[in-house]
Amino acid sequence: MPFAARAAGASAAKNACVPLIVTRDLRKVFRNAKRFPGALGALRGLFSPVYEDRVAVAGLSMEIERGEFIGYIGPNGAGKSTTIKMLTGILVPSAGEVEVAGIVPHRKRRENARNIGVVFGQRTQLYWDLPLVDSFELLRAIYGIPQDRYRRSLDAFIELLEMGDFLRTPVRQLSLGQRMRGDFAAAMLHEPPILYLDEPTIGLDVVAKEAIRTFVARVNREQGTTIILTTHDLADVERLCRRIVLIDHGRAIFDGPIERIKNEYGRERTLVVRFTETTSAPTIPGARLESVEGMTARFVFDRATQRVDRLVREVSDRYSVEDIAIEEPELEGIIRHIYTQGYAGEERSA
Amino acid sequence: MLAAYVQYWKINLLTIAEYRADFFMWFAFTIVYHGTALAALAVTMLRFPSMNGWSLREMFFLYALWMTAHELHNALFFNVVSVPEYIREGRFDRFFVRPFDTLFQVLTVPSRTFPDGFILGLVTLAIATHVAGIHVTPFTVLTIAAVLCGGAGIDLGISLFVAALSFWLIRVDTLRWIVMSLEQDFTRYPISIYTRGVRIVLAYVLPFAFMNYFPATYFLGKHDAAFGLSPEVGLLTPLIGLLWTALSYAFWNLGLRHYQGTGS
């Protein structure tokens, strides 16, 4: 295994300008037998099946450089998992090209497997009846990790992910948080240069989430591991990723740094004013009143056309003010807006 | 790959040590299972002194040959039956992201497998060989070993074929059940007692007859009353096992390309 890792590293160094992961017009169409209602329908389906095509990924082109931490986000059914499965070599694309570290994953599945680690939040890779440490031992044998290196990384993982207490517990008895930590260690034992995380924090409590975020941030920073994260928890993305790829209906509708999507959509700011007395229907020229709740009012204004100092002056001139705060829009709000309204910017600006 | 295989057996042993009661129950079940089949055979034979020219002693050997090959298959390849379940539940994905052949990985999912049934089979076969009065030379031992491997290969080939079908058809339980009962019911008696259609199926379509009937005619020096073939046909078993396994493996690889996951 260290040999393969070095080989992958060497080939990447040779083509320093070639991105680590490239997809070009990648497509995946699922073909499923259509079901007809009722017993007669089932019979009809059996003898003259009608197939329905469902386009999961509809022409995806992207490039990912070594060491990047990508947030790959989109609503349910947008094609995120299907993309990951094509990148990992699980699924064969219907059309288009895909290359990961110079390898076409579904053609050279086993070579590709040496370069990648995968964590599926909804499905454990660990063996249900075995203690964690036995699963790790088996993985050591599978990847042929030398004993000393295995010891070293395992010790590091035990410490970083605080796994010492449940190392000998059968996986089925672990809590979700413990199991996920085990899954992370299992995916990273062979020190892959690429890590795919598919909804890794789903269903976790805040403590476990934080432990895992800290862990992946560190892996990305210290080992330079390229990480592709799909998640519905945008706090994960905001905290960890520099770049996001937003996918909807199998197409990338935004690809760029988080700051850009915030700038494009986040022109609106909220001015939160707390009055000293109940004030009904307060107004400030240049800002729109969003809500009033007790003594607190929220005004929305456009950062590009209105100056904050003027607004603050106006409000304190007119009313008796106890406190003022300005809120920036959160990524979550922006993404929600895009899911419901569509993306207005230019498509896939690279 | 060898290291992973050794590790797999090591874990199995540890797991068995941990679940001893479960292991002994399975072992008891294996004894009862084969014991019942042999007892039924003996009862039948009390009423007919011979069946199509086969005595009880010879039929004991016939059964022992099948049992040992089948238990060898169970010890090494049993997990193939779990494939449809893995696919249906989406657990098959993991085999694609590890640097080994998918089939090898299926066969090495840690379980409570132990070659106890195979060891029982070997003991039974040794007794049956003695009882049937077969003159044993080193050559006999070698040919019996080859026939056992071939028989396990036939079992593997057929179960792998059914498992590979599940890449297209999500449910193959019925088919698997049919094949399994065919094997269990039609390997107990010499196939010459069945109608021509059944004989053809057992010899040429699902060649269970090569697991025991044809090799038994060779070792016992009997005439094949089913097709009138020469007893040496029984020595083709290793070849047929290899062929079935190879063809099913090719079919399996075709299925891998077609794999759609759970479709999500």
Helix-strand blueprint:
The complex is a heterodimer of chains A (350) and B (264).
Chain A: H1 2-14, E1 21-33, H2 38-47, E2 51-64, E3 69-73, H3 80-87, E4 95-100, H4 109-115, E5 116-120, H5 132-143, H6 147-160, H7 176-188, E6 194-198, H8 206-222, E7 226-230, H9 234-240, E8 243-248, E9 251-257, H10 258-265, E10 268-275, E11 288-293, E12 296-302, H11 308-318, E13 321-327, H12 331-341
Parallel strand pairs in A: 3-7, 3-8, 5-6, 6-7
Antiparallel strand pairs in A: 1-2, 1-4, 8-9, 10-12, 10-13, 11-12
Helix pairs in contact in A: 7-8
Chain B: H1 2-18, H2 20-47, H3 56-77, H4 83-88, H5 102-107, H6 116-131, H7 138-165, H8 173-186, H9 196-205, H10 213-220, H11 237-258
Helix pairs in contact in B: 2-3, 3-6, 3-7, 7-11
Give a nutshell description of this structure.
The complex is a heterodimer of chains A (350) and B (264). Chain A is of the alpha/beta class and 350 residues long.
Can you describe this structure?
The complex is a heterodimer of chains A (350) and B (264). With 350 residues, chain A is α/β, with parallel strands linked by helices. Chain A folds into 2 domains: 2-262, 3-Layer(aba) Sandwich (Rossmann fold), CATH 3.40.50.300; 267-328, Alpha-Beta Plaits, CATH 3.30.70. Chain A is built from 12 helices and 13 strands. Chain A has helices at residues 2-14, 38-47, 80-87, 109-115, 132-143, 147-160, 176-188, 206-222, 234-240, 258-265, 308-318, 331-341; strands spanning 21-33, 51-64, 69-73, 95-100, 116-120, 194-198, 226-230, 243-248, 251-257, 268-275, 288-293, 296-302, 321-327. In chain A, the strands form 3 sheets. Chain A has a 6-stranded mixed beta sheet with strand order 5-6-7-3-8-9, with helices on both faces. In chain A, strands 11-12-10-13 form a 4-stranded antiparallel beta sheet, covered by helices on one side. In chain A, helix 7 (176-188) runs parallel beside helix 8 (206-222). Chain A is globular, with a radius of gyration of 25 Å. Chain B is globular and about 55 Å long. Chain B has one domain (2-258). Chain B is an all-alpha fold. In chain B, 67% of the residues lie in helices and 0% in strands. The A-B interface holds A 4, 30-32, 81-82, 85, 88-92, 109-111, 113-114, 116, 118, 120, 123, 125, 127, 129-130, 134, 137-138, 140-144 and B 3-4, 6-8, 11, 14-15, 90-91, 93-94, 96-101, 109-110, 257, 259-261, 263-264.
